[in-house]
Write a structure and sequence with these properties.
The complex is a heterodimer.
Chain A: E1 3-8, E2 11-16, H1 21-27, E3 51-54, E4 60-62, E5 73-75, H2 79-94, H3 110-118, E6 141-143, H4 153-161, E7 168-170, E8 177-179, H5 196-200, E9 206-208, H6 212-220, E10 225-230, H7 251-261, E11 265-268, H8 269-289, E12 298-299, H9 304-313, H10 327-343, E13 350-356, H11 360-364, E14 381-384, H12 385-394, H13 416-419, H14 426-440, E15 458-465, E16 468-476, H15 481-493, E17 502-506, H16 524-539, H17 550-560, H18 566-572
Parallel strand pairs in A: 1-5, 10-11, 10-13, 12-17, 13-14, 16-17
Antiparallel strand pairs in A: 1-2, 3-4, 3-5, 6-9, 7-8, 15-16
Helix pairs in contact in A: 8-10, 8-14
Chain B: E1 5-10, H1 13-17, H2 20-33, E2 40-45, E3 57-60, E4 64-66, H3 74-83, H4 101-104, H5 122-127, H6 132-139, H7 143-153, H8 165-174, E5 181-186, H9 195-202, H10 204-218, E6 222-228, H11 232-247, E7 263-269, H12 278-285, E8 309-313, H13 314-326, H14 328-332, E9 342-349, E10 355-360, H15 365-372, E11 382-387, E12 394-396, H16 406-411, E13 420-425, H17 430-444, H18 450-467, H19 473-489, H20 493-498, H21 500-508, H22 510-519, E14 533-535, H23 545-549, E15 555-556, E16 564-565, H24 575-579, E17 585-587
Classes of the chains: A alpha/beta, B alpha/beta.
């Protein structure tokens, strides 16, 4: 790697060529303020806070977007720079409602932090606000253009990272807003509710729809039996909201906290992830071995944002989609049938709640009638990791000092395969562990299938399952999906053999651990740590494969019969439909 | 029979709106009616420059310069002048062309063919040495030699920043790439500026020739002219020129059998000022929202569709064929040491001769305004001149002897910009004008970066407070603070220069700002909120003219008795002041 010699405030430094001034300064413990910059995105260079001087040049340049040049000395802080930055902050403040106390981002707002750093005690410019309504049209996220600081992150996330193109810069100059095109509301736009915009918004302009009050109301209602399930990715991220490093596994404390919040039963979505593998793995084997099993490749369907994306952008892929519902919806269906029966509770009295790393899950529970297979709403409420963390704080629970507890039977026990659903490649790996058994009738020797692990946007490889060599591919981050789908389409349209047998897609970078409902400040390092936490959960599990989970064996013995049985189909499978990109 | 006389009719947009076409057809019809159709040729040309006096008809060879011509005058011109040989005095612009002061200090290189040839005929361009430079580049000169010639010429980009053109081309020439683009920035957007429009309307082939030369030099086969849709005549003439060039083998595959292929497409812009900024222009050309991105990487290395791209503006290109034809040294001898060549300005405002002027670099502002421009209109006092449009600054009479070039203008706090030059007189309020420019920037800010988006809005708001008498002294400091932040922290040239009018007028006319704030007075009377009109009862003779002309009406009074203005109704239009012959209306 070529190295470049530069100076930061006169201090000599050697950095790799291609480093930005911002990163070079960080390496010598100099923090240049930023607001629009996010490490997940290309520098957009909008806010103007990271300006620095290049010695002997009259202009200021943006540290986020400017690469270091051999021999240059960069001045990051001097009275003029600090004055210019302060004026920019003051200008932005004058354009942003002073409503911190009631804002969804109170305490987590990046603009609040910047304002604190600049010690502005009196606003020099009178408030001048946009009089624009909130967009609350989706069940997942709220768009509040009044609070928008026009950093452009959401548009970049939506277009570049997720390839969705629901958000666009609308109008010009001072009237610029981030909205769907042509006056459409979010639910009339291509929005897939992944919530990555809300996870990247530095302020309270886009945030998850807060439904914590609904849970509180349900637990106060004596007639309700509140059953709460928790998704794999939540357990390795929620600690961040309480000051812990990312990746710390807190499963037992979450169970305990949910009971303190008033849950009558605490289940784990990982159980249903195992159930998903039984159904989806069997479906894959059927597609591989019999002609009536549906076309190859089989494509995973457990991510609701991806499902929505497919229905809008790739409806011709519907026959390839696994008909298996997502683990959350399976858990919901068996909670109000199997569990209700076992526990002797009328399913109409069960209030079924899921704690998810995801905003699209809020949409998924009402996406169509298949989500009422129990005869009731299979799921009543979804709260994101962020909402649960707030609720725990509000309830006065000393979360980090709770004693670990266990989930409730009969749908609370999970295998290591269930927990890795939370990371990219995890569904694939879990499915392969069980498919191996289904195809060969033998157990896989080493269950750690490294070929499908990793953080690359698209990964593909071959995995031997007995005599069969499976061609598999994994994609995460919606923008990485197009190339795979185009390959599949191209082969299909030209009558060639499918390039893959099995494809796993997760809408968010890193999989669910990087979900749109996870604690803020997610970046590559955070995703890696959460991923490590998930794999550690898998490794410490005594049961590593879904089909070995005793609770899974039992539910098939007692209730479902076998995978893809009629009852399975009724409760655990769904259908898809093409949806328009825009509707009015 | 040989043609004896030529009637040149200006076909620039300014004169077009003054019915050029009817004049053109009228001349043809009159010639026909008088049986002299074979003796004369009527030609629709590009802009003559003296737009103030348009529509213009010029008769050759005697170079009779008729101004303010209407379609009804055509019969007279044909019958009296061309048939009977008597010049039509009533239409004459004082003296004939050669002696018109407007043209004396001009040196028309860029505008060499404007007002001379029919821009819709490629042969007329060719007859004036057109495409000679291209031939040279195709068959005689290597890329290195072309770059060397440009380097010797010292040509700097006429779009505003004055970057050496040869260097831009060299960067692109040196990058290895499967595709390169040559882009012409014809997104002229400064208020009052129309240099590029006139060049494209009057001499479109000079731009095509230059772009083909650029293509050959940097090894590109694809040119794009990005032009605003509000220039329909320029677009039409470009389309004609492109068609004729293709038919003549000057565009397309294997140009003139040289083996070099190049073609040009036109992309229409929707008229956003920010799309004159090169990265925003390229984004817009790609079909994206026109918003700037940080540089580097520069377009020369990573431009249109992320490919190396030469992007120059119209005027820069117009110089290229001349430099190649006559040599870099010839060009270098014109103008000043560091800014060789000429510069075209759109001279407007309170000036006698509004129009397009082209002068050698180094000409002083005094010469442009008082010699070429004929001085201030109506004998008023010169106050200031704004160069560089909304990005520039004001220049006061103390600096009138500044030679105009890139470096001198920057040194006195203004800039060359693309060439807008707006002259102000004593009747103009400096704060009001500054507010006008700021309003333009507010409208044209793309909205991407915070300093420009909010800074311009805030500065405009404060200027509004000042002109309405609601400002405090603190507001002046705020203007300076925001001005600095906008200048330093904005992403692109639009924002970086948006504060220039504010900062330069604060520097040179601070007293006028103070009068507004401290004394609540606007000396020019332009700031209506600060003005009251009253009638001096001693001087008023009760003629009733003011009362009759008042549009509200708010002036009352008996005949032959002093009138009174009802202040609660007065809209401060100033008509009473203008119409009173007795000096009875007092502005305070």
């Amino acid at each position: 790697m070529a190295m470049v010699n530069i100076k930061i405030n006169g201090q000599p430094q050697e950095v790799e060529a291609g480093t930005s001034i911002l990163d070079a300064a960080k390496a010598v413990q100099v923090k240049i303020p930023t607001l629009c910059y996010h490490p997940d995105l290309e520098p957009w260079a909008a806010c103007g806070l990271c300006v620095v001087k290049v010695e002997n040049s009259p202009k200021m340049v943006r540290a986020c977007a400017t690469l270091v040049v051999e021999g240059q000395n960069y001045i990051t802080h001097d009275p003029e720079l600090m004055e210019v930055r302060k004026t920019v902050v003051e200008l932005m403040q004058s354009n942003h409602p002073n409503e911190c106390l009631t804002c969804a981002r109170n305490g987590t707002c990046e603009f609040q932090d910047i304002s604190e750093d600049f010690c502005i005690r009196e606003a020099p410019y009178c408030e001048m606000l946009k009089d624009l309504p909130k967009d609350e049209s989706t069940p997942s996220i709220v768009l509040d253009p009044r609070k928008c600081i026009n950093c452009g992150r959401c548009v970049q996330v939506c277009q570049q990272m997720q390839d969705v193109w629901a958000l666009e810069f609308i109008n010009r100059g001072y009237d610029t807003v981030m909205q769907p095109a042509a006056g459409a509301l979010l639910n009339e736009s291509p929005c897939i509710k992944c919530g990555q915009c809300s996870a990247h918004c530095p302020v309270g302009a886009i945030y998850e729809k807060d439904e914590t009050e609904k849970l509180l109301a349900a637990v106060r209602d004596e007639s309700k039996h509140v059953a709460i399930q928790v998704a794999p990715a939540v357990r390795v991220a929620i600690g961040e909201a309480f000051g812990l490093e990312p990746g710390v596994l807190l499963t037992g404390k979450i169970y305990a906290a949910l009971r303190m919040l008033g849950a009558d039963a605490v289940f784990d979505t990982n159980f249903a992830a195992d159930l998903t593998i039984m159904e989806e793995g069997t479906e894959l084997v059927k597609r591989l071995t019999s002609k009536g099993g549906g076309p190859l490749p089989q494509i995973t369907s457990c991510c609701p944002a991806w499902t929505d994306f497919m229905e809008k952008y790739y409806p011709d892929m519907i026959p390839h989609f696994s008909t298996a519902k997502s683990p959350m919806m399976m858990q919901g269906a068996v909670t109000k049938t199997y569990y209700a029966e076992k526990a002797g509770i009328d399913p109409k009295d069960i209030y079924s709640v899921a704690i998810m790393p995801c905003t699209a899950k809020k949409y998924e529970i009402g996406r169509d009638d298949n989500m009422r297979s129990s005869g009731y709403n299979d799921m009543d409420l979804v709260l994101t990791t962020r909402e649960l963390a707030r609720l725990i704080k509000r309830a006065g629970i000393d979360f980090l000092n709770l004693k670990d507890e266990e989930a409730d039977n009969p749908i609370g026990i999970y295998s290591g395969a269930g927990t890795i659903f939370g990371v990219t490649g995890g569904v694939m790996e879990a499915a392969l562990r069980t498919a191996y058994k289904l195809v060969t009738d033998e157990e896989l020797g080493d269950v750690n299938i490294q070929a499908v692990r990793g953080m690359e946007g698209v990964r593909s490889g071959e995995v031997s399952v007995g005599d069969t060599t499976l061609r598999v591919a994994v994609a995460h981050g919606m923008a990485n999906v197009r190339q795979l789908m185009d390959e599949v389409r191209d082969a299909r349209d030209n009558g060639r053999e499918p390039p893959y047998h099995f494809i796993e897609v997760m809408a968010c970078k890193g999989g669910c651990i990087g979900g749109g409902g996870q604690p803020y400040n997610t970046d590559e390092e955070v995703r890696q740590k959460r991923t490590a936490g998930i794999y550690s959960d898998d490794e410490k599990s005594t049961v590593r494969c879904s089909h070995q989970n005793p609770s899974i064996i039992k539910i098939y013995e007692d209730y479902l019969g076998e995978p893809l049985s009629a009852r399975s189909h009724e409760l655990l499978h769904t259908k898809y439909q093409a949806r328009p990109l825009y509707q009015k | 029979m040989a043609i004896k006389k030529y009637c040149l009719v200006c076909g620039g947009t300014g004169c077009e709106t003054g019915k050029t076409d009817a004049i053109y057809r009228g001349l043809l019809a009159a010639a026909d009616a008088n049986g002299i159709s074979d003796d004369i040729q009527v030609v629709k040309t590009g802009c003559f420059g003296l737009c103030e006096k348009g529509p213009i008809v010029k008769v050759l060879p005697e170079e009779t310069f008729y101004v303010g011509v209407s379609p009804e005058d055509t019969g007279k011109i044909i019958e009296e002048h061309l048939v009977e040989g008597r010049i039509v005095d009533s239409l004459l612009y004082k003296v004939n062309n050669k002696k018109i002061k407007f043209y004396q200090k001009q040196k028309r290189l860029v505008l060499r063919n404007c007002g001379v040839i029919d821009p819709e005929k490629i042969n007329e361009y060719i007859a004036r040495q057109g495409y000679v430079a291209l031939e040279k580049v195709l068959f005689e000169l290597s890329s290195e030699e072309v770059l060397e010639e440009l380097k010797i010429s010292g040509l700097r980009g006429r779009g505003g920043a004055g970057f050496p053109t040869w260097l831009k081309w060299k960067f692109t020439a040196e990058v290895e790439s499967d595709k390169k683009y040559i882009v012409c920035n014809a997104d002229e957007g400064d208020p009052g500026a129309y240099m590029d429009r006139a060049t494209l309307e009057g001499d479109p082939h000079s731009i095509l020739e230059a772009m083909i030369i650029a293509g050959k030099t940097v090894n590109s086969d694809h040119g794009v002219i990005y032009i605003r849709a509000e220039y329909p005549l320029a677009i039409q003439r470009l389309e004609i020129a492109l068609k004729q060039a293709r038919e003549s083998g000057l565009l397309g595959d294997d140009i003139l059998g040289s083996g070099f292929s190049f073609d040009i497409e036109i992309r229409l812009g929707a008229g956003a000022f920010v799309c004159g900024e090169e990265t925003a222009l390229l984004a817009s050309t790609e079909g994206n929202r026109g918003m700037p991105i940080p540089k580097p990487p520069f377009p020369a290395v990573k431009g249109l569709f992320a490919k190396p791209t030469v992007i120059n503006n119209v005027e820069t290109y117009a110089n290229i064929p001349l430099i190649i034809e006559k040599g870099g040294a010839w060009f270098k001898a014109i103008g000043t040491e560091k800014s060789p060549g000429t510069k075209v300005f759109a001279l407007t405002g309170k000036i006698e001769n509004s129009g397009l002027v082209e002068v050698p670099m180094g000409t002083t502002l005094r010469e442009i305004i008082f010699d070429v421009g004929g001085g201030i209109r109506d004998g008023k006092e010169f106050k200031a001149v704004q160069t560089g449009g909304p990005s520039g600054g004001v220049i006061t009479k103390d600096y009138l002897d500044t030679p105009i070039d890139f470096d001198h203008l920057t040194a006195i706090g203004s800039m060359m910009g693309s060439g807008g030059m707006i002259v102000m007189d004593e009747d103009d309020c400096i704060v009001d004008i500054t507010k006008f420019y700021m309003e333009f920037c507010v409208d044209e800010s793309c909205g991407k970066c915070a300093p420009c988006r909010i800074g311009t809005k805030r500065m405009h708001q404060i200027l509004g407070k000042i002109t309405s008498g609601q400002a405090t002294m603190e507001d002046l400091q705020k203007l300076k603070d925001i001005g600095l932040a906008t200048q330093k922290a904005s992403l692109c040239g639009l924002g970086q220069t948006a504060a220039n009018p504010v900062l330069s007028t604060l520097k040179y006319f601070e007293e006028e700002y103070l009068e507004h704030i401290r004394d609540g007075k606007c000396r020019s009377g332009k700031c209506k909120d600060l003005v009251t009109y009253t009638i001096d009862a001693d001087k008023c003779i009760g003629c009733t003219v003011c009362a009759r002309k008042c549009p509200v009406p708010c002036i009352a009074g008996e005949r032959k008795a002093p009138h009174v203005i009802d202040q609660s109704k007065c809209i401060k239009c100033g008509i009473c002041f203008d119409v009173c012959k007795f000096g009875a209306v007092i502005v305070a």
